[in-house]
Design a protein that fits this description.
Layout lengths: L1 E2 L6 E2 L11 E4 L4 E4 L5 E3 L6 E7 L4 E6 L2
Antiparallel strand pairs: 1-2, 3-4, 4-5, 6-7
Length: 67
């Protein structure tokens, strides 16, 4: 999940939607780690996102990772 700091909106980025590698969740480190690149995203990291989908009825936001 990600949170937009300015307005406190929260939404989700699915690991399968991060296209630069195949990411697996490491429970001990609480991080997504790329199998090839070894790039990791940990809780609290700042990332750039873009809105991918909205569902106003369910009040869901889906984001995609920009960088």
């Amino acid at each position: 999940y990600v949170e937009i700091i300015e307005n406190k909106c929260e939404g989700m980025i699915r690991a399968r939607d991060i296209k630069d590698d195949y990411y697996v969740f490491d429970e001990k480190a609480y991080a997504l780690i790329g199998e090839v690149s070894k790039k990791h995203y940990t809780l609290g990291d700042e990332v750039w996102i873009r809105v991918k989908n909205t569902d106003l009825i369910k009040r869901h936001l889906d984001f995609e990772l920009v960088k």
